[in-house]
Amino acid sequence: MTEPLVKTDTLADSVPDPALAVLRGTFGFDQFHPHQGEVIRTVIDGGDAIAIMPTGGGKSLCYQIPSLVREGTGVVVSPLIALMKDQVDALRQYGVRAAALHSGLSPADRRGVEHRLLAGDLDMLYVAPEGLLAEPTLALLDKIPIALFAVDEAHCVSRWGHDFRPEYLRLSVLGERFAGVPRVALTATADALTRREIVERLALSGADEHVAGFDRPNIRYMISEAAGGKQALLEFITAKHHGDSGIVYCLARRHVDDTAKWLCGKGLRAVPYHAGLPKAEREHAHNLFVSEDGVIVVATVAFGMGIDKPDVRFVAHLNLPKTIESYYQETGRAGRDGLPASAWMSYGIQDVMMLMQLLQQSEAGEEFKRVEHGKINALMGLCETADCRRRALLGYFGESYERPCGNCDNCLDAPDTWDGAAAVRKALSAVFQTGQRFGVNYVIEVLRGGETDRIRQFRHDRLEIYGAGAEIEVPEWRSVMRQAAAAGLLAPDPEGYGGLRLTEKGRAFARDGGTILLRKLRRKESTRAAAKSSRHKKPAAVGPPLDEADGALFEALRKVRLELARAQQVPPYVIFHDSTLREMTRQRPGDVDSMATIAGVGQVKMQRYGADFLKVIREFET
Ligand code: ADP
Ligand code: ZN
Predict the structure, then answer these.
(1) How many CA atoms lie within 13 A of 104 on its CB side?
(2) Residues whose CB is under 5 A from ligand 2 (ion)?
(3) 406 to each of 219, 409, 414, 440, 617, how far by Cα in Å?
(4) What is the CATH number of the domain that holds 31?
(5) How many domains does the chain have?
């Protein structure tokens, strides 16, 4: 391994802590994130560990630092080539000797990596699970000292999760074949079931478990009930994230294509991404996203896991995600760098009905359905709550959050509520009287006394409920129906084609009455006004916005970064993160010593790039 590089300003406090020395010297950071230090010290001392940390929590350093401190090469199991490449690129920038072995290498490149490995010339090796478990690779590893094994994205062992990788199940052999080599498993997936599976399937029963909190304070959560779709998305992007990088998630491939085209037509730089596109096109979209500023990827959930990009400023959903877990994971891709970022969602009642219906029609067992149904209800609860979104989200993961967060739509602009009992009873009656087989739109027509052929044909204009809800507008009725579904009073007909029926709870409510507080639909005008007043202002969770002079310097620093990145064909963020450039902007270091104190400026980066960035800062000082 390389000698830990020690930063000049820390030589004085001669603490003999090699982990801290590498954190400061090589990576240029001052302090460990919560739990990082503990995991790192456990592994350095030869113990096994499990690290559950949110995205952006700093999982990579948990195995990178021990790999540098311990003798031998740190071997990292990673599920995606893109992820490996990204990490290797980033490590090389820090002066760490890292390489990846994967199926995309030419035979000559592979031999090169193997040679370096045997020569003791690699601090870290990234491999895919199937590559690692192939006998030739294992035999190769038998010959060299190994610092540790790290299993990244360890939730891939979970059969229940949507990232399941059968090869991950075989990783338990590592503990047997390489007894005595510490192992560390890492994931951002929160739930207790997955955690248990990781322990079992990777044979990590003796491991230290470190679970960090799941809050992502820099992410602003916004969920809008209006099914405004694309137009609302466009307003959100132009008002809050002009020129930023972002991801827009849609459910269907066609919706992805349409939305990307539409956004381009509105002058934004959007590219589609889904499994139905040719590989070359997907790679192009991916590369554009990581190597340029301000690209928006419109995608299905097929896009995301290999994305390490720290400066994704927003994640938008045009449909409901499948569960709260997927919502948390997908939105978690925003703001890894800790700077302000947004999670925005717009959804309609059709989304809810579709989720419920898919579940009811599935072949799965009753137990599984019951669990999944609970998950849909929790998701609806998050979407329809008038309370703090963060509190609802963290509550789902078993974390209590006492105060309102002040950084979600409901905290920033509390929705009005109203006593919805009478309206809900009308809605339930209308569903019941029409025979529990019609969809939302038809039921609303009946409630409002619509004069359509269909209503006349079914003689629903003779019902008692016909026209009894004329005083409430269609969008409000949709909101009432959605909230009634969220409250578990209405559900889609299991046999039918989008028809609604009353649940048991709904029948009781229709019969006995009850209280229900509904959130008022936000009026479009007020949304627009709010968007206008905050135009070009970023959410202010972390750090104050830059003023004009600082903004110009920041842009100049980004320009140098882009040039340096292009010359080496690496993403700009592996040179320096936005957060590092922001700190340079704020502190304006005038010499090498003060430059070295900026977070993210390690010794090697200082040598390579210090002069280029100091030059730009000096130009702005005069
Ligand atoms: P994760 O894999 O948990 O999502 P990463 O390992 O990619 O997170 O780290 C997220 C970001 O935080 C990276 O940009 C990393 O450089 C930075 N980071 C990690 N640890 C620290 C630390 N102790 N101090 C400052 N920044 C850190
Ligand atoms: Zn809140």
Answers:
(1) 10
(2) 388, 390, 404-405, 408, 411
(3) 11, 8, 10, 34, 35
(4) 3.40.50.300
(5) 4
CA dist 388 → 16, 336, 344 (Å): 45, 22, 15
Written as one string, the DSSP assignment of 201-220 is HTT-TT-EEEE-----TTEE
Nearest atom in ligand 1 to the alpha carbon of residue 152 is 2
**For residue range 406-432, what is the model confidence (pLDDT) as tens digits?**
999 999 998 888 999 999 999 999 999
- Using alpha carbons, list the distances in angstroms from residue 350 to 346, 356, 390, 487, 491: 12, 10, 25, 16, 12
Distance 600 CA to ligand 1 centre (A): 10
Cα of 232 from ligand 2 centre, angstroms: 21
Q: What is the CATH number of the domain that holds 439?
A: 1.10.10.10
**CATH (domain of 564):** 1.10.150.80
Residues 308 and 454 in one domain: no
**Distance, CA 348 to ligand 2 centroid (Å)?**
22
- At 136-184, the pLDDT tens digits run 999 999 999 999 999 999 999 988 777 889 999 999 999 999 999 999 9
Residue with tokens 């019951």: 370
Structure tokens at 294: 């301000």
Question: Are residues 73 and 144 in contact, defined by beta-carbon separation less than 8 angstroms?
Answer: yes
